[in-house]
Amino acid sequence: MRKNRLFPGALVVMFLAGCVQNFQKPAEPAAAPDTRPADEAAIRAGDANFAQWAVAKDVDKIVGLYQDDAVAFAPGMPALTGKDSIRKMIEGLVATPGLQVNVHVANLDVARSGDIAIDRGTVDSTSTGKNGKASTSTIEYVLVWKKQADGSWKIFADTSANQK
To answer: Is residue 118 part of a domain?
Structure first.
């Protein structure tokens, strides 16, 4: 008879143990892998490509660096929204006679989340004036890059100012 008294008690203990297990905090998901070094390399390649493509006057490749809904702010111009507006600005840039471009990244910070980055630096551009003499100017820039669904990086916001 003693066994019969233990059986209901064992069932209660098993039931309570199951309830406690159901109320435990769920395990936290594993942290996403840190892809910042690879992301930084991809963005630096984008900066270098910009300079190369500007000299080659390859408007399509430069515009391809931007998201469809990107916004750009350039000195003396109203905000440019969307690739069509940005294309017109790029067309004006690459039409510059004797254009040479050098990008100098001062700081590149990819967020730990891996989906956004801030890229800051200067761009030196040299062109040939109407008088045939070379002229160099430097602008300071800040770019906001966003990672796309396919893992590529595109510029979402582009702002620049003439360096004094």
So the answer is: yes
Count of domains for the chain: 1
- How distant, in Å, are the alpha carbons of 8, 148, 164 from that of 122? 78, 25, 12
pTM score, whole prediction: 0.79
- pLDDT score, position 75: 82
Express each pLDDT in 24-52 by its tens digit. 666 777 777 899 999 999 999 999 999 99
Residue 58: inside a domain: yes
Determine the residue type at 20.
Answer: V
Question: Domain range for residue 40?
Answer: 36-162
Q: What is the pLDDT of residue 12?
A: 57
CATH number at residue 146: 3.10.450.50
* 153-162 vs 66-73, strand pairing mode: parallel
Nearest to 50 by CA among 63, 36, 69, 41: 63
Among all chains, which residue has been given the structure tokens 């004036």? 129
Residue 8 falls within a domain, yes or no? no
